[in-house]
Design brief:
The chain is 76% helix and 0% strand. By secondary structure, it is mainly alpha-helical. α1 packs across α2 and α6 packs across α10. The N and C termini lie far apart (74 Å).
Length: 197
């Protein structure tokens, strides 16, 4: 009897973990397809193959639903690691590598980024997530900019790089038909124009 109880408890815990994962997968799919505002608990439950009460048992409110989505989606889709370009000695090649890495990243994750930027004004829990990502981009832009720190040329280079690294910039250039190489070349021309190279 005592041997069966831990086994049953372990099986129940595994089943709950699997159910939770199905719900999280459903949340991510629906948020990417419809956005958080249009992803009702009923739709999440139907997609996950569970009852609404089961969703609430794991995620009691909208903020918990959104947190589950953003944390798991972020774990599956991490942004480019600065180690990819930090070791490149030539500043122009370093910038090119960073831009290419981010543009490739956005190419593979654009649907969720598009939804996030579109709905953030009306979905307050999204705002700190985007703000944190923005602070990361601030640091990357500052680290990539060349020129004497404090000079106008350096400040312009930082602003240009920060604009170039933002998802809405990628999305706008993508809508105009530029491939990633074309986007990189355009940003390099911007940097040359502001004296950042």
């Amino acid at each position: 009897m005592t041997e069966k109880r831990p086994y049953r408890m372990r099986r129940r815990a595994e089943s709950q973990d699997q159910t939770r994962q199905r719900i999280v997968d459903a949340i991510i799919e629906l948020h990417e397809e419809l956005g958080p505002r249009a992803s009702s608990i009923s739709a999440i439950a139907e997609r996950a193959g569970v009852q609404r009460l089961t969703v609430y048992r794991h995620f009691p409110d909208d903020e918990a639903v959104l947190t589950a989505c953003t944390s798991e989606w972020g774990r599956r889709n991490p942004p480019p690691d600065p180690a990819l370009w930090e070791g490149i000695a030539d500043p122009a090649k370093r910038v090119r590598s960073a831009l290419a890495s981010f543009f490739k990243y956005y190419s593979g994750t654009w649907r969720m980024w598009s939804v996030g930027h579109r709905e953030a004004p009306d979905v307050p829990p999204l705002q700190p997530v985007l703000a944190e990502f923005g602070r990361m981009l601030d640091g990357i832009a500052a680290s990539l900019a060349t020129g004497r720190r404090g000079s106008k040329a350096h400040a312009r280079a930082v602003a240009t790089l920060r604009h170039a690294l933002a998802f809405p910039t990628w999305e706008s250039l993508q809508a105009q038909g530029l491939d990633d190489d074309g986007k990189v070349a355009l940003v390099e021309a911007w940097l040359a124009g502001v004296g950042g190279r």
